[in-house]
Amino acid sequence: MDIGELAKKLAEKYGYHVYMIERYLELFGKEETIELLEANEKGLNPVIRCNTLKISVESLRNRLVKKGFVLKKVPWIDYAFQVIKSPFSLGSTTEYLLGYYYVHRGMGSLLPVHALDPKPGEIVIDAAAAPGGKTSQIAQLMKNKGVILAIDISRERMKSLRSNLSRLGVENVIAYRMDARDLPKFGIKADKILLDAPCTGEGLIPIDKSRKKSRLIEDIKYCSTLQFSMLTALLKCLKKEGILVYSTCSIAPEENELVIHRVLERFPLSVEKMDLKDGLPGFTEFFGYKVRDEIREARRFYPHIHGTEGFFICKLRLRKELNDNI
Amino acid sequence: MIIFRKATKKEIVKIQKALNEWAGKNIYKKVTSGRVVVIGEGKIKEVFLVPAEVYNILDKTKKVRMPYYLGLFFGEINGEFKISLEGLWLISKYSRERGVVVSERGEQLFLYGRDILEESIIKVGSLVQIGSKVIVFNKFYEPLGLGMIMKFSDKLTEQPKTIIKNILDRGWYLRKGR
Question: Which of A90, A122, A219, B165 has the greatest number of beta carbons closer than 10 A?
């Protein structure tokens, strides 16, 4: 059976656009593509992140276990648990309402902040911040000391951001509803920046099955262009030797490795090794493209291998401060 | 548009007065230490406690753009100062005697926005008076919200009963805060 026929067959069986399966077959081969599609069907356990600004990990775990929750430690992060069984809705317990935890849809979304490694006293920009999951994780690692500029363009999602950050007792945030590409106008230079970029969300299929059909191939190109322009603007807001972590919940290389390659070609950046105990190296060749070798240091996560959403993370260091004219 | 600025003397006096009633005279100093009291003035006046470092960023950026919000939402001034849920969280450890402790059943009902009946009240603080606002705590002394303690005469038994009327509870985050 040729690739086209196989793609059509699998697309029909699992309910995807044919172009998506064709791409998976080219990237991963037949066997792994089927493993990925099967893992997407299974879904993921939600994850709760203990909010150490308000309660210790042990106290929260004991309280929830007493209430009948079955929890499993997230392998890479010592303040988060996968929820194997929950007797109540995760968003309605007293502990949730008191701000003792935040609910993540999967383990992958915890990793970008872990890679960013924010410290108390730093100036950090979270450039696509709403609804506040990653911002509050940054705040807890900073122990509410220093400053987080939380940026998002969506009016509705900003309401959720404010509510979540209030509930979690986050204080060191100044939140702006704006296009992150306008940030250089502030003239602020940050120690660290997180860009968990808007993307096609292909990696979220285990959580949201509608994504099998909701995006067209043109959307990948649109997102890639947007991601590059956001990244370019944000680099102007970084101090010399500052760190920018770029992540998406897409597994499309055009939204990941290709975006990184384009900024590496244009700006004085290096790709940093990350303290992540898992993940596969970034691609250096795909769909006829050849990108810079150092992109191997980026990390890819998959539902069928790591039990996470599909995720991409890359850590960049700016070697020379940029001015607005670049 | 909401304009963010430092609180005026008059506004600070209002906040101080309300806080003193909850937790005595030193409470304002305690909760504002290292923080700037900022007013977000739009249709209503919101009060934020803002760490000094965050306030510096506001100062640098407000000519370009006003933020959506900043710091910790502490309450609002609408005539008098009304404390927020997170404001209550900050002051609660200093004002246990102005609170009541409720049972687990009472906790659940209160977080659903309901009033608390007498049988769910486990302990009443020494400074609580009928007709006054009280902090509602669970058995771990975690503040669940704000209520008004009232007495009424039960129509069936004609016995006087105490209830805590729900003014504000953390179930708000579930009902409205998403």
Answer: A122
